[in-house]
Design a protein that fits this description.
- The complex is a heterodimer.
- By secondary structure, chain A is of the alpha+beta class.
- Chain A is built from 16 helices and 21 strands.
- In chain A, helix 9 runs antiparallel to helix 10.
- Chain A is globular.
- Helix content of chain B is 37%, strand content 21%.
- Chain B is built from 15 helices and 22 strands.
- Classes of the chains: A alpha+beta, B alpha+beta.
- Chains A and B meet through helix 9, helix 10 and helix 12 of A and helix 10 and helix 12 of B.
Chain lengths: 511, 492
């Protein structure tokens, strides 16, 4: 008996492949669609995306995944934000938190009240004191947020650090148990319809042929199908994001178990530190124009706080994206679609957003055998472009607003021309503390606020609507808010203790 | 120019003038901003009515204007949406409140679409408490149940003269300085910025920032800020407006009746009914317009005027130190009567971008960007309606043939392909409002997101029954519009 269902063939079994397979099998009716994922143990996955954004929780919830079980399986820790060390100037640091700064009073955004009190000479605290997530991160404590909106503990969210390889394996078990067919093998040959140009079938090294209606390219940087078959034009963003190499190395678990990702600026790029339950993920992202690989390796190894557990692994990439991610019946998701350095942990988010959009815009099963409506791809590509460009601008912001004078990479970054869309946002914040405010895509206002102020960009003015409020009342509210945060943080368990209690991975628990 | 502007001069007339002056002074008076209003002769004839969209309530709150006062002083009423009446076939309702409720986390609309394809006969609007309340002549009062269900937004129909008068008194009480002039002279400095306006009595009124709320005259913005005309692509080039007696029971919605030569709109209030008739003088001579309008309205019309429509907008509503507001900045096709909303958008964005220093280039850029985007999304509404109409007659044929902006083509294609409203920034209308519009115009999408097919038919039926039951029960609980106005809107 032949299977007449609409066949979706995913090529590549890394984080992108298994997240896409899981989401599609969860969202699409099994009577109409079947999903096959082809992966090869001989091809390694990148899997550097060990830090995530809070949206991942929504993704897991959509699948119905139990949080503690998932954290045990992926040896995960909690993440309340990202610490940026030495990014503005050596010695400076700030945390970009998952959560709000203060709250709007009288319909006026918080930062204006803060800026006004500051300008009036009131001894306001640093911005971080008004963020619960920042304060909890600094104290290395963690607890799940409170759902009661009146509680100060409802003002933050959280994400995870996990082993991306284990997450892909976890989702592989989850998806195959729900009907996704996994085929082990390498693609040797790709057949296309001569008239339409659509992909028709893949021939594997072992000889098997896999025919399908829609092909999802999750083959990473290689972009075997989209770039390989459709020559999708590449939009190069190196002029704004010059880092093009990474060296990644795990190191021994240490007691410095911070509930945030650490990013430390280095001469030719930056270094990440991601504490998992069982080890620490480290890496140096750098620009090959400004440092030799060997020097970068030495710098990375010299800056580990625990013994390395492997040889550093080199990754090469080019920042940018394919101008279209969906062409004909081929859709690229993940690195096959574009690459943005993991400075703000956006890789997994971009996979998630693309998988959700694809499920929504999936051609109808009845349309099998007829050309897809081009409006579906057009909308997918419009949404994907928006997602990538918004993340891009936010990443560039970290680089341009630096005061690391005398270091060639950083000097270049400080003076490079930036996209108009970003120049406009910067001018507006500098002039009056106004933050970008858009409904779709990353990042929200509070994220912009934390990085702008963290990078030393201080507005010259603030919204004059704030001047109508009694200054004494505003400063009292500021003090009260910071006090509520401090008390709330004091009542929370330590990050390590919370994990031991909630979701310790078996091996770690036994140790 | 050095310090932050502390003196704003608003030149204009009617609601746009007083809304702007009152809002600026109320919000920024505490920050030391003085506001002068220069009132030009009113253009409003008796019987004119503004239709407002839901966000106006929030602006009224900033003015300290509560709803009971508003309705009492203006003798206005509520508007839950629009009833569109085609010459043949069923009317359809564009409600400001929600249609249906999500099922299994998916939007309601594709479920309705699928069920219709399987023979279910309930209309989309049957699932909207707001639409059904309107059809039954009732208001829809929010409560815990409706809040759980979805939006219960509404607008108003406001007699324009009384509304302008009320706003003027609010502006006065807020400390706005009042001037009157038949006309103004504009005094500019060497950069082209406005230094002062001189009222016809010779009074010179200086300011650091000027707001042009003078309507299509654009007495300040005029030549300095080029106006891009849309007339070539507009279906209607004339609007006849007249006044008719009030309906015995005042409808709680606007009604638009489609005719061969154009369309006729009714805005009902307790003080009477505004009748407007849009047509194109190519197809219908002005001298025949009144007869056509009277026949369509089936009401006696008085105070009739005919205006020439000149739709279009300024790409830079804020240039130099002058901000063009409302009709001085943008005139949309009158189909959805968005004039007051356009003025409100300009005011709200000006408040949040009010200059903090003498150099306000950043504010100006952002204001022009966001107004541009917001007005483009509003323009889409009329463009979609005209492009997709299936009505007969030369007026509608021309409307179908007009070129559409790229965003509109994309919206239409995405809806046809997937029943999706392509998400865009700065929309004024909710996705389900758009869906009601598309469906009402006879669009039947070819497909829907497959995710909804994972919901069992039994569960869909149960949910539909639940929502229809809820709508029926809620509507029967509501007071009639007239009765509610008598209790809460000052009698009559």
């Amino acid at each position: 008996m032949t299977d007449s269902r609409f066949h979706i063939v995913i090529v590549g079994g890394g984080t992108a492949g298994w997240m896409t397979a899981s989401l599609l099998v969860r969202r699409l009716p099994a009577n109409d669609y079947r999903i096959t994922l082809i992966e090869s143990d001989e091809i390694g996955t990148v899997g550097v995306g060990e830090a995530t954004l809070p949206h991942i929780k929504m993704f897991n919830d959509l699948l119905g995944i139990d949080e503690a079980a998932f954290m045990r399986a992926t040896k995960a820790s909690f993440k309340l934000g990202i610490e940026f060390r030495d990014w503005d100037r050596p010695g400076d640091r700030y945390i970009h938190p998952f959560g709000a700064f203060g709250e709007p009073w009288g319909g006026v955004e918080f930062q204006h009240h803060w800026l006004r009190a500051r300008a009036a000479g009131h001894p306001v605290a640093a911005l971080g004191a008004y963020s619960f997530a920042v304060s909890a991160a600094e104290a290395h404590v963690f607890d799940l947020p409170d759902e009661d909106p009146a509680s100060i503990r409802s003002t933050y969210s959280y994400a995870y650090h996990f082993d991306a390889g284990l997450y892909a394996a976890f989702l592989r078990d989850w998806a195959t148990a729900r009907g996704v067919t996994r085929i082990e093998g390498q693609v040797l040959d790709i057949a296309r319809d001569t008239a339409s140009g659509d992909l028709t079938a893949l021939t594997l090294k072992a000889g098997a042929t896999v025919a399908g209606e829609l092909f999802v390219d999750c083959t990473g940087f290689r972009s075997l199908l989209l770039a390989g078959q459709f020559e999708a034009p590449w939009e190069d963003w190196t002029r704004w994001l010059p880092c093009d190499r990474a060296l990644a190395v795990p190191s021994m678990h240490s007691d410095d178990f911070h509930p945030y990702t650490r990013s430390t600026a280095r001469t030719a790029g930056w270094q990440w530190r991601i504490p998992l339950q069982h080890r620490v993920g480290n890496g140096y992202i750098f620009s090959s124009q400004f440092i030799e690989v060997d020097d970068a390796r030495d710098a990375l190894l010299a800056n580990l706080d625990g013994a390395p557990l492997a040889e550093p692994r080199l990754l090469r990439f080019m920042p940018g994206r394919r101008e279209r991610s969906w062409i004909g019946n081929c859709v690229a998701i993940g690195l096959a679609s574009g690459f943005l350095e993991p400075l703000e942990s956006t890789s997994i988010y971009l996979i998630q957003a693309a998988a959700i959009d694809l499920a929504n815009l999936m051609p109808r099963a009845e349309s099998r055998g007829t050309p897809f409506d081009p409006a579906l791809a057009a909308e997918f590509n419009r949404l994907t472009t928006m997602q990538y460009e918004r993340v891009r601008d936010f990443l560039i912001l970290h680089y341009i607003a630096n005061r690391r004078e005398g270091e060639p990479l950083w000097d270049y970054l400080r003076h490079m021309p930036v996209p108009d869309s970003l120049a406009h946002k910067l001018a507006l914040f500098r002039a009056r503390g106004a933050l970008p405010n858009y409904q779709f895509g990353l990042f929200a206002r509070d994220s912009w606020l934390s990085v702008l102020v963290g990078q030393g960009v201080m507005p010259e003015g603030h919204d004059r609507l704030a001047d109508s409020y009694d200054l004494a009342m505003v400063t009292a509210k500021l003090d009260d808010f910071a006090g509520r945060i401090a008390r709330g943080v004091r009542a929370m368990p330590g990050h390590a203790d919370f994990i031991a209690d909630y979701c310790a991975a078996p091996a770690v628990a036994a140790a | 120019m050095s310090g932050a502007p502390n003196r704003v001069v608003v030149v204009g007339r009617d609601a746009a003038l007083w809304l702007a002056a009152a809002a600026l002074r109320r919000a920024l008076g505490g920050a030391g901003v003085e506001v002068a209003a220069v009132e030009l002769p009113a253009r409003l004839r008796p019987g004119r009515v503004h239709a407002s969209l839901p966000p106006l309530e929030a602006l009224h709150n900033r003015l300290g204007l509560d709803e009971a006062t508003l309705l009492r002083a203006t003798q206005g009423g509520y508007a839950l949406g629009w009833n569109l009446v085609p010459p043949a076939g069923a009317p359809f309702f564009l409600a400001y409140g929600s249609y249906g409720a999500p099922i299994d986390g998916n939007p309601f609309f594709p479920y309705w679409l699928k069920a219709r394809g399987l023979g279910m006969d309930a209309a989309f609007e049957d699932f909207s408490p707001t639409a059904m309340a309107a059809r039954h002549g009732r208001v829809l009062l929010p409560d815990a149940e409706t809040e759980t269900f979805g939006r219960t937004d509404y607008g108003y129909h406001l007699p324009a003269l009384a509304y302008a008068g009320l706003l003027k008194s609010i502006a006065h009480r807020a400390g706005v300085t009042l001037h009157q002039a038949r006309d103004v002279l504009v005094e500019r400095d060497e950069t082209g910025d406005i230094r002062a306006v001189i009222a016809d009595a010779g009074v010179r009124i200086e300011g650091a920032l000027f707001v042009d709320a003078s309507g299509s005259d654009a007495v300040l913005a005029g030549d300095a800020q080029p106006f891009v005309s849309w007339t070539a692509e507009q279906a209607a080039d004339r609007l006849l407006v007249g006044h008719a007696p009030r309906f015995a029971a005042v409808p709680v919605y606007g009604e638009t009746r489609i005719a061969r030569d154009g369309w006729l709109a009714l805005h009902a209030t307790r003080g009477g009914t505004q009748v407007s008739f849009a047509y194109n003088s190519r197809n219908l001579p002005d001298e025949d317009a009144l007869a056509a309008a009277s026949a369509l309205a089936a009401l006696p019309l008085g105070d009739v005027s005919i205006e020439t429509l000149d739709a279009g907008r300024r790409d830079t509503p804020w240039a130099g130190n002058c901000i063009a507001l409302g009709a001085a900045a943008c005139r949309l096709d009158p189909l959805f009567d968005l004039d007051l909303h356009v003025a409100q958008l300009g005011i709200v964005h000006l408040l949040s971008l009010f200059p903090v220093s003498g150099n306000f280039a950043a504010e100006r850029d952002e204001y022009n960007r966001i107004l541009g985007s917001t007005l483009a999304r509003l323009h889409d509404v009329g463009a979609v309606f005209h492009a997709l109409n299936r009505f007969e007659g030369p007026f509608w044929e021309a409307a179908r043939a007009a070129p559409v902006p790229e965003a509109v083509a994309h919206k239409i294609a995405a809806f046809r392909a997937r029943a999706e409203i392509a998400p865009m920034e700065d929309e004024s209308f909710a996705p389900d409002w758009w869906q009601a519009l598309f469906v009402g115009l006879g669009e039947a999408p070819r497909s829907w997101p497959p995710a909804i097919d994972t919901t069992s038919p039994e569960r869909i039926k149960d949910e539909f029954r639940r929502v229809l039951g809820f709508v029926k029960r809620k509507v029967l609980d509501q007071p009639a519009h007239d009765a509610y106005l008598q209790l809460h809107g000052g009698g009559a």
